[in-house]
Amino acid sequence: MTPIRVLVVDDHPVVRHGLLALLRYELEFEIAGDAADGEEAVAAVLEYKPDVVLLDLRLPRLSGVEVMIQARAKGSMSRFLVLTTYDSDDDITRALAAGAKGYLLKDATSHELMQAIREVMRGNAALEPSVAARVLARMHDSPADELSTRELDVLQRMVRGESNRAIAVALHVSENTVKTHVSHIFAKLVVQSRAEAVVVALRRGLVTHID
Known about the structure:
Layout: E1 4-9, H1 13-24, E2 29-35, H2 38-48, E3 52-55, H3 64-73, E4 79-84, H4 89-97, E5 102-105, H5 110-121, E6 126-127, H6 129-141, H7 149-159, H8 164-171, H9 175-189, H10 194-204
Parallel strand pairs: 1-2, 1-3, 3-4, 4-5, 5-6
């Protein structure tokens, strides 16, 4: 099995070296590199192309949010898992909006951290329980705009695991049209990925079953 390549970004040497030591004990992970500040992190993400980036939010030179924004703007496909001591609503919102696929606090156990890396690598969201509760509460307090009939149709097919191309063929529309529908679905559900959209759709009962 191909190992998951992980880049560790934290400005505290003890924390950074501790994370690197943990990863070395796990055969399914490979250390892609490490960085101590935001600018180093962006350069390392672009150079080493890690699968997953363990990223602190408060960093010298560039914040973790700025790292994600700059790396993605330059074409990075790495998945970002935030590991921080900060859990304010503003920190969570900004991190998820910038593209973080996971958000853990530094009091997480090593098992929780390793499992979160695996989940993010699979394309799933990996959220600290308290963070997930806040996100769901905000979604409940601010319900998404109503999805159109066509968007619900696309969402149903996303739940089945169909690709944009397969959906386009089934609905007799262009793939670009499907991409537009998917983009609108993401915006209305306040999610960042297909996996998150599916979870929210099933949880809210927008799609009641997988047929």
